[in-house]
């Protein structure tokens, strides 16, 4: 065992460009928890869940996305940051997550058009182009967005900066700006969702302006020791969308801006590559990471599909990745990192049975994963639901109930 430990590249610390040291190479990637309290703030369930993950052995924990603007919500049980908010819940969240030595980044996000119509009927986006998922059952799931006005864009950039300042004040080690998976920043980057003709659309420089301004704004506002991460798509995997060449150029734009960690992912709701890639290999974004490595010195966190110790070790030893991001396994085996990194197990499994209809399978799977956050948030052990379909229905009912509460929260002035 000792020799495995001595040689294990997964257990090497990583020093980020700003000097912060992460104790090992495993990160719990962001997973939307959907268990905020009644005021859309972190509460008991989040604290319980993170006290579990604090013991996971991961050097880095990245929270599920929290919202930078009360008017945009990716899922109806999420934490919402707002001006003048009570910071006690955020402070407790950061403290619990760090209690066993992990670093914690708060992932900050705005959904843009990718929000369910039962949550927001008319979302905002770079351009009025609706999410289109094939199948009649998805026709009314998303609303047609309204294009943002120039001054609203500036205001949203400032909201990302304010969110980072709140995270810093609350004691998080840093933030991760969610620029992937088809949310607002990714919508600006993609020529499919951004057909603007002003300074925010057209050329890649213009489409990347929102992200670049957010990154510059945060770096200028926070202390040098506060980590700034960016999660970026390697590609959207859609014809005419944000392609690998674009992603490489965006990374080059980020290079001089003081980014401490770049997480590589891919896909969006229309083309959900983040949930399975091409299926050809376990760690499906590593090929892209290799190309990114050639043009950037920013430490790379590669997320998507990693399950086997040897694959993770090889990715770190070969320097294709500096950190390995893992999401789904943390829902079912919250303490697997110790066993895997120390060589006691070779592989972590996620054990979710498959349903025959791919669309239903995908949403039922997400509901089954989210159930584990609620269970751990209530101090229970992870456990698959008896019926994936029944669990999905319950999750939908809960979502609608939360959406009603959200609408009331907005009407009451979002406080
Ligand atoms: C239930 C669930 C919620 C997720 N929420 C987020 C999120 O809030 N932010 C994010 O960047 N990625 C989110 N993801 C994507 C994961 O971070 C990760 O990129 C993806 O699951 C692939 O990693 P894995 O194969 O290890 O699960 C989520 C994934 C799952 C399963």
TrEMBL record:
Transmembrane segments: none annotated. CDD domains: OYE_like_2_FMN. This is NADH:flavin oxidoreductase/NADH oxidase family protein. GO terms for molecular function: FMN binding; oxidoreductase activity. Keywords: Flavoprotein, Oxidoreductase. It comes from the Bacteria. Residues 10-343 form the NADH:flavin oxidoreductase/NADH oxidase N-terminal domain. InterPro entries: Aldolase_TIM, NADH_flavin_oxidoreductase, OxRdtase_FMN_N.
């Amino acid at each position: 065992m000792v020799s495995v430990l001595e040689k294990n590249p997964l257990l090497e610390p990583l020093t980020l460009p700003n000097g912060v040291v992460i104790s090992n190479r495993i990160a719990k990637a962001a997973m939307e928890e959907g268990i905020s309290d009644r005021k859309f703030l972190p509460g008991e369930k989040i604290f319980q869940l993170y006290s579990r993950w604090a013991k996971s052995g991961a050097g880095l924990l990245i929270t599920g996305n929290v919202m930078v603007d009360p008017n945009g919500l990716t899922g109806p049980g999420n934490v919402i940051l707002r001006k003048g908010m009570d910071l006690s819940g955020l402070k407790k969240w950061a403290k619990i997550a760090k209690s066993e030595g992990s670093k914690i980044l708060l992932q900050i996000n705005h959904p843009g058009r990718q929000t369910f119509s039962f949550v927001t009927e008319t979302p905002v986006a770079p351009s009025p182009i609706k999410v289109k998922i094939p199948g009649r059952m998805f026709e009314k799931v998303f609303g047609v967005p309204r294009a943002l006005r120039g001054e609203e864009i500036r205001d949203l950039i400032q909201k990302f900066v304010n969110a980072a300042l709140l995270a810093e004040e609350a004691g998080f080690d840093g933030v991760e700006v969610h620029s992937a998976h088809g949310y607002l920043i990714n919508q600006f980057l993609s020529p499919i969702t951004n057909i603007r003709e002003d300074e925010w659309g057209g050329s890649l420089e213009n489409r990347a302006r929102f992200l670049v301004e957010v990154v510059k704004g945060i770096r200028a506002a926070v202390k040098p020791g506060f980590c700034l991460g960016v999660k970026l798509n390697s590609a959207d995997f859609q014809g005419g969308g944000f392609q690998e060449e674009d992603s490489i150029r965006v990374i080059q734009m980020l290079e001089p801006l003081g980014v401490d960690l770049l997480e590589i992912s891919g896909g969006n709701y229309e083309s959900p590559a983040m949930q399975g890639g091409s299926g050809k290999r376990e760690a499906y974004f590593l090929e892209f990471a290799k190309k990114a490595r050639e043009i950037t010195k920013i430490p790379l966190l590669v997320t998507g599909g990693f399950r086997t110790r040897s694959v993770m070790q090889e990715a770190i030893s070969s320097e294709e990745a500096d950190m390995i991001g893992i999401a789904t396994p943390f829902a079912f085996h919250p303490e697997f990192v110790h066993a895997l990194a120390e060589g006691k197990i070779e592989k972590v499994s996620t054990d979710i049975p498959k349903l025959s209809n791919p669309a239903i399978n995908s949403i039922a799977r997400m509901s089954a994963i989210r159930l584990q956050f609620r269970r751990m948030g209530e101090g229970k052990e992870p456990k698959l639901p008896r019926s994936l379909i029944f669990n999905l229905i319950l999750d939908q009912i809960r979502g609608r109930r939360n959406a009603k509460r959200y609408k009331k929260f907005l009407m009451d002035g979002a406080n």
